[in-house]
Fold each of these.
Amino acid sequence: MRVIKDNAIHEDNWVLISEPSQDDELPGGDLIVPFDYWKENQAICKQRDDKTAVCINGDNNIAELADHLDQFQLIALEFPAHKDGRCYSHARLLRDRYGYAGDIRAIGDVLRDQLFYMKRCGISSFAIREDKDFEDALKSLKDFSVTYQGASDENLPLYKTR
Amino acid sequence: MYIYDEYDKTIVNERVDQFRDQTRRFLAGELSEDEYRPLRLMNGLYLQRYAPMLRVAIPYGLLSSNQLRMLGYIANKYDKNYGHFSTRQNIQYNWPRLETVPDILADLATVEMHAIQTSGNCIRNVTSDQFAGISVDEIEDPRPYCEIIRQWSTFHPEFSYLPRKFKIAVSGAENDRAAVQVHDIGIYIVKNEQGETGFKILVGGGLGRLPHIGVVIKKFLEKRYLLSYLESILRVYNMFGRRDNIHKARIKILVKAIGADKFAEMVEEEWSHVKETSLLLDEKEITRVKKYFAQPEYDPQANNDETFQKNLSENKAYSLWVKQNVKNHKIPGYRAVYISLKAPGNPPGDATNEQMQLVADLAEKYSFDEIRVTHDQNLVLGHVKQEDLYSVWEELKSEELATPNIGLMTDMICCPGLDFCALANAGSIPIANQINKYFDDMDYLHDIGELQIKMSGCMNACGHHHVGHIGILGVDKKGNEFYQLTLGGTAAMDATLGDRLGPAIPKSDVADSIKKILDAYVEHREDGEQFLDTYRRIGMDTFKKSVYAEQKGK
């Protein structure tokens, strides 16, 4: 999967399985599976030789994942449309409340002009929509050099430094 | 008023660059209309019926003279020499060219202004009481808290893609002049039993298709918890507000669906996690922001003036203007002056460049360099010495800004309607004109007294028709403009939604129907009783008969 991470463009081995068939075995390789699938098939996911990550969407209850965070190197947040903002809250809960320290990846309708906010909410890698210019999207992480409110990237509000 | 430091300036300047680039990419075809839409909306830019419309933020309605001069300059340079003050205390330009909007924003940035979050599904411009800091009924000045909320909500990374727009109003007085109860979050500054001030928090108010009065979910919130509590409300809304139907996406629908108690419970749960975090509001920060809103240096001799009474007794037109448009100030010898943007024939809320320049000059000369925009689309000079009132009146007259109609029926709230807006079903401004032409007898208007007419050209209710004493809603009936009247609404402390009068009325009959409503009022009012009180006492039937009797007989 091609992503923006650590201010650069990376290609890594994660593959998103949007609709795993319940009967078939999962293919090999590092996979991102839907939250509902993971819930039903936790044993299968644990036994795999390769890494398994989970994909959360706005409808999912992130609290159900809270006790299992250790097993994931990556948690994907799905933005079905760029204007669906629920996963911004999911990201903040993962970072600020549940203390998740792994990679949080935005997938779906991920566009340049949302990256700055996503980054502030604790999202750490961005699977930009494939038809978009990744180089161009990189620039947006520097849109603002000052922010007013605390968030997952910078906990303290600006006024504390005034 | 609040003055930008280097941080604020940087944020606004970087925003100009960001939006310039977003617009460039859109014009170059790199961004689709669908992708550009939320970006331009979060910058107050609509693509309207005939031209783009740009809405510029006026945080809690407060302007300096230089800022108002710039608004006039922009009207002249980029638009058709006028702007429209809106019910959110903002200003709208109806004819800018898309290509010039980045330049307009750059000009605005030079006077510490912007169009950030004046539209879109994000936290909008925080509104407040136009008499903040000067009224006799004030518990505490709400403006420092408005500014604190403005900063917290500006480019809030978590709450910029909410299910729908989000409006917050704050009032610190005993009388509500900010329509607090019809906001997504309404905040009243209140005193508890120990005499400390804090906040009473309401949620789920709003107009639009499904109007609701907000409900109290927190009777007393300590000041230090302001931001943590707001953040909790917004998080619950962001997670659980409906996103499947644009008409059911406002927080009021969520609150109604799960019940206010359940909603409050969810907020409390969320709050329990965040209340003692870095969201805690420092006392030091409150003190720092309060300094920007400190009292100006009033003249202790202001109350010794003797010309005021003399002018009143000598000039009838002047005394009428004082009676209607000049309000008391907490400092003896000072007054607050309403500048009516509701002259007959003037689209309600519109002001020309020349008018804005004059008001800016008057503010500089007579009112500590400060202008306030009201949610009912007028301007206020907040601190005018009594002895200066006569000069102010004379100068205002020169630009037709002294119509003595504040609070009277021609002081209408009116949306842009079919003349500009892509959403409208019917005209608003032509109805305002019709009412102005029909009711041109000032003596009659004064006899009728306080009467708020509020008018929207569609059910989105930008003209607040649900909370007008008389509300007018434009509807489309098979291609013809009709108007649905409501009676008995108010957005004051006793906020109430208006009741439907009956079948919609054809365009040509609106003013005539209002006259029939007022005939019934005049016939039934008791001594000194205002329209709203009469309506509440005698109910709808009398008014209904008065308007529809003839039609039934036909």
Amino acid sequence: MENVYSALMQALQLTIVVAGAPLLTGWVRTLKCWMQGRRTAGLLQPYRDLARLFSKDIVLAENASWIFRFAPYVVFGATLMAGAVIPLISFDLPLGATADIIALVALFATARFFLALAAMDTGTAFGGMGSSREMTVASLAEPAMLMSIFTVSLASQSTSLSQMAHVITSTPLVLRPSLAFALLAFILIAVAETGRVPVDNPATHLELTMIHEAMILEYSGRHLALIEWAGMMKLLLFSSIGIACFFPWGISGHGDPLMLPPAFVILAAKLALIGIFIVLVETGLAKMRLFRVPEFLGSAFLLATLGMLSFFILE
Amino acid sequence: MQSPLDLSIASVIVLLCASAAAPLLSSKQKHLVTFTFAASAFASLLAFAGGLSALYGGAAESVKLLIGLPDLPFYLRLDPLSGFFIMVVAALGFCVSIYSIGYVRSFIGRRSVTPLAVFYCLFMAGMLLVLLSDDAYSFMVSWELMALSSFLLVCFEDERPQNRKAAFIYLLIAHIGAILILLSFGLLAGNAAGFTDFSGYTFQAMRESGISGGWASAAFLLGFFGFAAKAGVVPLHAWLPEAHPAAPSNVSALMSGAMLKTAVYGMARLSFDLLPVSAWWWGGLVLTLGLISALMGVLYALMQHDLKRLLAYHSVENIGIILIGLGLAMIFTSFNMPLMAALALTAGLYHTLNHAMFKGLLFMGSGAVLHATGQRNMEGMGGLIHRMPWTAPLFLVGCLSISALPPLNGFVSEWLTFQSFLLSPVLPSRLLNILIPLGAAMLALTGVLAAACFVKVFGVVFLGRWRGRHKTEVHEVGWSMRAGMGLTAFACIALGVFPTLMIDMMNSIPGAMLGVKLDVHRGLSWIWLAPVSAERASYSAPIALLGICAAIAAAYIVAHARKTAVRRAPAWDCGFEKMTSRMQYNATSFSMPIRRIFGFLFSIKEGARASGKHPSAFFPGKYTYTLRVRDRLWYFFYKPAADVSFWLARKAGKLQHGRIQIYLLYSFVTLIALLVFA
Amino acid sequence: MTVSFAAQINSVLAALILLASFGLLVQRRIYGLLHIFAWQGLLLSISAAVVGYSAGLHHLYISAALTLSLKVIALPYILYVLIHRLKIHREVEEVVRIPTTMLIGIALVVFSYHLTAPITELSDLVTRSTLAVALATIMLGLLMMITRKKAVTQIIGFLAMENGLFFAATSATYGMPLVVELGVALDILIAAFIFGIFFFQIRTTFDTLDLKAMERLKEEE
């Protein structure tokens, strides 16, 4: 019985990740339209976009090899696997122990590796540009990410997401400067990893400012749909990692089906708030020059390190 | 049933016989190649069986040979640690030997391959003997056998001056290292039995001597730097990027994958077995140098566009990662925390095995590319995936492994290293608590930079369009080369997906060296890797792989639910017209952002020059970009050292007059001096 | 408010003061620097008040009020007027690159932690753990003075160092005697005025506030 329940939870979780991700993106886009005084295309536009892309024919670049055709599936697969691990509404995830947060970050790295390769595959100038920039930004984000993880794991003595969240919810609330710093650092990293303003602009197709978009310029049809979908899932998943590490209150515990509906509502509320936050940041800030990104991510590293230091010095 | 030690000795004998027999066949070069490399593959199998069973059995076994000098017999010993390293060397040796059958044939007709065959076998025998020796004398003899035979292999293609120079630098640094190791053994032996007789030269006597205090530190430092010179630890790494590209690719695979590991073996043997554990700063030193090597290695690698040089710098990086594991293990041991030390040691050793496999694979792959295109410069390559349908995916496996991506093997060992880093808060020293996490961040940076580097390598060499000026007919390599690469690629996947099988087997090493065994399952079943506790962290490669595959299958079904057509068209590229292959990103442009961010660590000279009929700044006929990246250590470390030694040599050179009477006077004065002081 | 809760708040404030010091190091705009400096003063005065409340030492309230009026209002205002009059709102020019400065800063924090660890073990005040932060703030202020080119940023670095001293006094010994504190405050105020006069002098002499110009003042060789 217990196994059936956990399997159900796992299925529910995957459904939320796969089906809910476009909704979060739609929410962000709608809010952005409101903020900028434009008419919206509706919350459901990302779904329509995906459906349209799936039904379109594919135009492959002449030089594209199997790497180019295979990469979208790997990107989608690795992201979905990461989605099976991060607790969204319940800790009852049989697959939850498959990867701790370090392995989780590495799963995203696998997806990124294949996407960067695919960008190099068509032999165009922009593809290489995107892949070079993406790998540069990723390599600067990673030390900060690890330091942030380290700081959080100092308090919870664990890198397993469920356990980290569990420790935070079950201990009495104390003021922890280390966690606050880690959170700030994590936000900066998540912005860089999900390719949002001010590091990258998901809406741009201006040649010289693209990072992520430059990599997927040559994609079309179902390949593009899979990559876009994976990108939406990544936004949802990074938000959920943040929620699980820093604001886990409301995720339902083991074998507690009654908590599910409230957990679902709380999750939706948290994600909606994150969407508002993203939109406020993206409307208020301009995209920064590529060579300011090292300073941006350097600040993230600094914050995470200060978090680690203040754990030892002050707590 | 033979004992593991017998199997290993048999393997060495087969290798020595093959090397002795090779010149007899030198008139029939094809048969020579098949015979020697088949023999070395067979010998590797024997050694592999021996090493594996020693590792599995967990007991030590030793023998005294009746060769050597009077009163100084050779002692051989096979315990789990040497068994593990023998297994690593033999596993790679087997794959490389099979690969060599095809690879070395390409030299036939251009030059005699007899020296290659002879010294290849001697080199393998030397490595195995180093791992088997149980006394300082036989260790140094086999160490020299290994160093000299590899030196002769590096200068195999000796018509190129840069190869001769590379071989010379290699020989020089190898011998500086050997002298340091010899001095370290001298200290240990002297401490074990005094300086009056030779009985202290066995490792057994050194183990029992109970050396301590300043002498132990001195012996450690001498030995560590001696082995570090062989392992290519920064700042003693200068020979590595010179020697590895100069050697034939099968030899580079062995040198990078196996020979560097003998230096790691030496460090582990010295610091966990021969010397008692004392100060934590030993581990701190190893950890710091490991971190610096890892980061500098990968940054240097990113700056390269010579494929084999790039891979050689990655060896510096990976040796650094291995040293991080060893250093953490030493720190934990010094604070008397054997369980955590066992985890860190296992992480380092597992990375040793993994590095042997993926670096062997990558060097063999680079050999295949070299074989197919005739060049090592990546800027002239591109699109090889269309012409080399076997080599490309195999090379990709190597790239994924070395970039530490799940579910391949490089990730497992890096994950274990991170787990040992995460245990550092339990150390009782507050300063270490704060400093060690910064090391973890450096390791994370290294990992992603390695990934960036291999996107560059695979992207520039195999993807895109041909960048060279001339059309070259590129062809796939033969079956034996594919088989050699395929075996190592299979090992990378197997070690990545089923890491627990190997790690369980490796448990006998911490058992023998630290007295504890590691439980990596913590009550979960064998597919889970949970080295500390299930709550703390867990990773399951089989499930991750299955999950990704299932997700890919699901995505495939969903994406193909509606029939859509696929058609080929010129690349869009934002609507730019007349794309030429020279507009692609190449190795230099790919690493430009990283070069700019980390440029202060190098000495970089960049220049752009307009030329052509009417060179003007606005409409240049042709624009030439030049870039020279140099190692700052050359100026700060090597060049002063070389200048000093040249200066000394000139001073000493004044003794040479060419007059026979003066030379006789020197001998006479020496004789008198000896008679006075003796 | 219990003692442990006060200590928690004080830790958070210490962390924020440290963050502000790093903010001063990485900030490129001069007005941004002034804002961060004012925030640091505010945090400092809150911290003094909290320590005063939890330890029952009422003279700390006076120091808190003094800090508030001087470092949050008066000094930033004076500097603001100076910058406005001298028309220097361009970006801060640094001698050492900002990421490198950050790494040096982290190393300084680790170093000051290592330095104060023995003292912290001897003390039994609730605020003892913040001593490392205070020392780090002093060092970061000095680092800022070293790595910047323009005179104004150096003044801010100097004032940040003084903030560190004040914080050290509150956290190590529950504040200096009131007389000393009043004297220091007056000194700072006068220093600010003198700096102001100097700025005008430097600019009329060299036509710039870049301290590089002062290198010309040495004797010809």
Amino acid sequence: MRLSDRLFIFIAACLALLVLAFVDAAVRVRLAEPALEARATLVRQLELTDLSLFTEARYTRHLSQSDIHTAFQDHPNSFDHFPSGSLVLPPSHLRVP
Amino acid sequence: MKKLILRQKYLIDFTLSSLKRRLAKNLGLLLVYTLIVFLLASVMLFTHSLRREAGIILESSPEIILQRLVAGRHDLMPAEYLDRIGRIRGVTRKAGRLWGYFYDPAVQANYTLMVPRDRDLGQQEVVIGAGIARTRGVDVGDFLTFRSSDGRAFSFRVVDILEADAELVNADLLLVSEGTYRDFFGIPADRFTDIVLQVRNPSEVRKVAEKLTVLLPDARPILREEILRTYDSIFSWRQGIVFVLLGGSILAFVIFAWDKASGLSAEEKREIGILKAIGWETSDVIRMKFWEGSIVSLTAFLLGFILAYLHVFYGQAALFEPVLKGWAVIYPSFNPTPFVDGLQVATLFFFTVFPYTVATIIPIWQASITDPDAVMR
């Protein structure tokens, strides 16, 4: 078989996988709707406000509920020492040039 | 038409043979290129998926949360504030929430203790999140013992484990009765952690918040739209930060690829000279190099994206777990819902495939318009 034919077969297989990924995503999003609804119901019932993604500190656990002065809440010069704190967005007024 | 296709096929055959002659170098390039696309696509898919999911499920969080601030810090809310709020037009429900944090020295993890409004729990009963169950190795019927704020030991029987499917919001939750919560933390009956308000008309939420700040100057209202905005911007920021961190490796790759693509080796120059000497036109040489750039970049994009999809949506984005986990002990086990943004994928395709292809053509054009004799010497 010619090299170009082998390449075409390879690229076609990769493109098929790419299309399959999009189809898989669409199907799984449709299938996940009841689970998403169940999560939303839990949030409604327990009146939750945040994702339990960063449980290392209280102001990273409840990002939307933390003090206004977070992450410098303990002292103005006390820099944030949790790894996820270094990734969290500073307040919007500090980002305005 | 058939002739044109055949011509291109011959050119591709020749390009592939040429790539095969420098197999190790080109495979190395393809590997690094694929890795870069994989990392960029993984970050993009993961953050977009989390952002969408957070937006959908936090849409059900309370419309307004009222926190009391004392000396700039969050303080307990007196129950009489519920009466002081009175009857604000548009507010359909107002209630005090009880929740807080508990550090468990046994596993060095932080839990979120809450009093649920939707279920009645006995004095010694507890409902835990799947993250706590996994970390502590407990199941329904087992007992958990914690030491309260005044040093007393409280034993709780696990009566239920919250759905593992919803770990993204409940991994560290510990639900207890109101009486137990107050006894455990020593919180008097006339105090709440904060107050939640339900507003019938979404357009009135801001007005209600304004009225609340006038009525209760020491309180801070947090609106649902602010919660949603927080998560939207956090994941954008996280995505941005990771891109910045990746920036160094991307730049290194750009330099490597640019050098490989734009700086022609003596061997390549000789090859072009020979091709021109045996009758190849400049356009054929450029087409050949166009195919070389396209094959390498398209292959890297396709492989990188497919691997990233598998990593994020079938492998629980395992490579990102140490970054997101930080120093936390409890980390939710979850498979992100595969929300894929076609525009983002198209942007990634454009910025990964297009520059490399262009970078391969320009130097070839310069070399192929020169005299074959001069190039071969």
